[in-house]
Write a structure and sequence with these properties.
It is a single chain. The chain is α/β, with parallel strands linked by helices and about 375 residues long. It has 2 domains: about 15-245, Aspartate Aminotransferase, domain 2 (3-Layer(aba) Sandwich); about 245-370, Aspartate Aminotransferase, domain 1 (Alpha-Beta Complex), CATH 3.90.1150. The protein has 13 helices and 13 strands. The strands form 3 sheets. A 7-stranded mixed sheet has the order 1-9-8-5-4-2-3, sandwiched between helices. Strands 7-6-11 form a 3-stranded antiparallel sheet, with no helix packed on it. The chain has a 3-stranded antiparallel sheet with strand order 10-12-13. The protein is globular. About 50% of the residues are buried.
């Protein structure tokens, strides 16, 4: 029987076990010191003054809508080429996500499309650093300044990325990270929000803990909040991951470079956009685009028959069933995003993917394309 090559896998080692056991033995499984340690270490990693740990990236995005004062009647301009949480978080506050098309190279928001999407109801821009490649923050900041808009960064796929020489998360805008097991590092589930001020941090901590009052008094709640806390066991796992994050990121760079070499001579497959002077990617997934006219479903079926996992990555949000039904979106609305969604294919990718497995993936892909 052919051994399956999975799409992703976390890198868990003895240090993770050590810190999780330490937390278990401490008896402090939630609202304990491990979360404090994790927040401090993560803030140092991304170059942010403050970080609030939360239960997921989605929770972090929701709280950032609260930070930005988003409410009913407001619009938030965002990308259709992302995981659905990037738009759902706007709906949670009764506002409307307005989709602007993406750049065909970076697959991030096209600043010209963002400018065209701004209306008197627009209150914020939610920029996604898709697949770990930083969005064009300089141009988006100029748009935001002209129109008096907030910026929120969805950095859930971009831990370790850099934009214009600075880590993603250090811009001063609220930036949300996520730690699902397929991400660069994991806490199982979990997320974090990097912010510029202690006031923002304190509000996030209150909102994520049922609106606990600023006094910290038990069972005293000053505002509407949520149970969006990160527990100490998850924080312990994350702290161990952070201690060797540089090693994890470097290994992912090596795996991506090897794919680039193996795919260079394969016709019908477009590799991810390379870095340039302003962008240093953090490798979250390895997504190629198939040439127009290739039957992607057929390719995926042939890969699966050889034990190689693959996925379309990503469907455009505006064409998801819920968004079609609620907002009436149809094909042709956002053509660049739709084209990327129709041709994208995620290949197996993680920090410890063996070279022989990568060779097997590319050989299987070559056969699937013929």
């Amino acid at each position: 029987m052919t051994r399956e090559i999975p799409l992703s896998a976390p890198w868990i080692d003895g240090r993770e076990e050590e810190l999780v056991v330490e937390t278990l033995r401490s008896g402090r499984l939630s609202l304990g010191p491990m979360v404090d340690r994790f927040e401090a270490a993560f803030a140092e990693q991304v170059g942010a003054p403050c970080v609030a740990a939360v239960s997921s990236g989605t929770a972090g995005l929701h709280l950032c809508m609260r930070l930005a004062g988003i409410g009913p009647g407001d619009e938030v301009v965002t990308t259709p080429f992302s995981f659905v949480a990037s738009a759902n978080c706007v709906l949670y506050e009764g506002a409307t996500p307005v989709f602007a098309d993406v750049d065909p190279g970076t697959l991030n928001l096209d600043p010209a499309a963002v400018e065209a999407a701004v209306t008197p109801k627009t209150k914020a821009i939610l920029a996604v650093h898709i697949f770990g490649y930083a969005a064009e923050l300089r141009e988006l900041e100029a748009i935001a300044e002209r129109h008096g808009l907030a910026i929120v960064e969805d950095a859930c796929e971009a831990l370790g990325a850099e934009y214009r020489g600075r880590p993603v998360g250090s811009s001063g805008h609220p930036a949300v990270f996520a730690f699902y097991p397929n991400k660069q590092m994991t806490t199982g589930e979990g997320g974090a929000v990097a912010v510029a001020t202690e006031e923002e941090w304190a509000l996030l901590k209150s909102l994520s803990n049922q609106g606990r009052s600023d006094s910290g008094e038990w069972l005293t709640h000053a505002r509407l909040g949520y149970n969006y806390r990160l527990d100490d066991l998850s924080a312990a796992l994350g702290l161990a991951q952070l201690e060797r994050l540089d090693e994890i990121l470097a290994a992912r760079v090596e795996v991506a470079a090897r794919y680039g070499e193996l795919l260079a001579s394969l016709a019908g497959v477009e590799a991810p956009l390379p870095d340039d002077e302003e962008h240093r990617r953090s490798w979250f997934v390895y997504v190629v685009r198939l040439a127009p006219g290739i039957d992607r479903n057929g390719v995926m079926a042939r890969l699966a028959a050889e034990g190689v996992a693959s996925k379309p990555y990503l469907p455009s949000i505006h064409l998801q069933p819920y968004y079609r039904e609620r907002f009436g979106y149809r094909e042709g609305t956002l053509p660049v995003s739709e084209d990327a969604s129709a041709r994208s294919l995620a290949l197996p990718f993680h920090a410890r993917l063996p070279a022989e497995d990568q060779e097997r993936v590319v050989d299987a892909l070559r056969r699937a394309l013929t």
